[in-house]
What we know:
Elements: E1 12-18, H1 35-49, E2 53-57, H2 70-86, E3 92-96, H3 100-109, E4 113-116, H4 126-132, E5 137-140, H5 161-178, E6 186-189, H6 198-206, H7 208-212, E7 219-220, H8 226-232, H9 240-252, E8 257-260, H10 263-276
Parallel strand pairs: 1-2, 1-8, 2-3, 3-4, 4-5, 5-6, 7-8
Amino acid sequence: xxxVIRWGSRTFIMGIINLTPDSFSGDGLMGGADPVKKAxxxxxxxxxxxxxxxxxxxxxxxxxxxxxxxxxxxxRLIPTLDAILKEKLDAIISVDTYKSQVAERALQAxxxxxxxxxxxxxxxxxxxxxxxxxxxxxxxxxxxxLEHDRNGPNEENQKDIVHRVKSGLQASxxxxxxxxxxxxxxxxxxxxxxxxxxxxxxxxxxxxGEIKAMGYPILIGPSRKSFIGTTLNLPADQRLxxxxxxxxxxxxxxxxxxxxxxxxxxxxxxxxxxxxxSKNK
Length: 281
């Protein structure tokens, strides 16, 4: 049985499983032998450490990464997805993709959620696929989107980062609503690290409550991001404390889901924050 999500009862954890050879954080599983076995081992470990959701991604979203075709993404994704589903693990299975073809194949296989880093704007069919399968969808604001989306809102003149993010998310919500995705199946992500400066990322976390006020659950993914590396002058594999600080502040500002690489440590941070904030009592 899948975990039941009661928003506001506590903060949930999404563990990142990178089915790529070129993850920015160095945890891509496709570079060596038997990636399915390694991914399944990681999934089980994450669940033992306290994750609620597993987010499977088969294309790197780091700046400058080479794009991957839908066919190659499916080839990377489906064997691991099938293996995880066969184990009937106690976790919601999310698929990190912005391609409708990949999303439909994953949902047909049994995935639960879609996590779209382009907020339903890159592929015009994505919203219809999510609606067709009644899938919850994480809608992310992508600051790189203006060069890809001629139909998006004009955000260039909006200097305030929170207003810019809210404007972009509202446009994505309208796409979702037009496709008949129900409100309870929409989760918002401000897109930390995606086309934003270090200062903008810090401000977004501090003012996350303004995005929460839009009336949807909030997912945030600060884990190991470059704004932490720049602030602390540290490489990706040494950003644990910075991620913990960003996670704690995000929770106090209203985050519902924290997307992380280091599940065990962040689960402890989250549990402590929830205790202080009197959640899950």
